[in-house]
Amino acid sequence: MSTADSIIAALPEPTEALRHPPRIDLPPLPPGSAPGSGNRSANTAAGSSAPAAAINNQKSSIKTQKLKTPFFARQMQKMEEAISRLSTRNNFWHRVCSWIWLPLAFRSGITFHKGSESTFSAVLPFRRFNRNWYNAMAGGALLGNAEVAGGMFVFEKCGGNYTVVCKQLGYKFLVPCHGPAVYRIEPREDLAALVKQGGEFNITVDMTVVQMVQAKGQRERRVGICTATFHVTPKQLVRQRARRRMARNLPR
């Protein structure tokens, strides 16, 4: 006899209950349902989707609480909008704001003059800060203040609820300027219609730079031509994008 046969022979005999197990009758299933049908899967799906939805709602509520703008930030936003509107009210407040945030524009002494609804001009004085070594208006002063003049025109027309950023600036020098320079600004597009749409947009302005007449009988002389393109975005849209970036950086 082999080892396996001896091990099997040593095992105890099974009892009568194991040889003939009792029969258990299950209650009948309701009509229209069968084992393994879609009722069990539907109940399982409903039971699993409910906790998932609750977890997603809890996550979204946590993110909303985390991204809620603090009181100090809301007050800063209101102050920023008020200062933006104030900077375009007149030359005095423009000078005050330039002294704080644009010191080079403050030292250059550029001022703005509003005419009719479609005319806007800026005057760059012929002072020592704006002149070069051969007593002419410096090219950097003419170019840099062209951006300030065009940006202030767009900002004044759009209002304090928009951000204005220069995307492209081109300047063509014609002749030297030996006196105060006047920037005459004209937009290519209908700025009021673009603002009415409510979204972000690009606006291109053409500026003719002329030397101001200082003496009787002196003729006005064109010293340069400038073209600037500005990108205008509502501040509310900028804040929404900042909140979305914060939401992407939150821990999961």
Structure commentary:
It is a single chain. With 252 residues, the chain is an alpha+beta fold. The protein has a domain at 111-240: Thiol Ester Dehydrase, Chain A (Roll), CATH 3.10.129. It is built from nine helices and six strands. The two termini are 68 Å apart. Mean pLDDT is 77; it is low at 40-48 and 58-66.
What is this structure, in a nutshell?
The chain is built from nine helices and six strands, in the order ααααααββαββαββα. It has 252 residues and is of the alpha+beta class. It has a domain at 111-240: Thiol Ester Dehydrase, Chain A (Roll).
Radius of gyration: 39 Å
The helicity comes to: 40-55%
Strand content: 15-25%
CA(first)-CA(last) distance? 68 Å
Gross morphology is elongated
Brief descriptors of the model:
252 residues, alpha+beta, Thiol Ester Dehydrase, Chain A, six-stranded antiparallel sheet, 9 helices
Sequence-ordered SSE layout with sheet pairings:
Elements: H1 3-10, H2 16-19, H3 38-66, H4 71-87, H5 91-101, H6 103-108, E1 111-114, E2 120-124, H7 139-158, E3 162-173, E4 181-187, H8 191-197, E5 201-211, E6 221-234, H9 235-249
Antiparallel strand pairs: 1-2, 2-4, 3-6, 4-5, 5-6
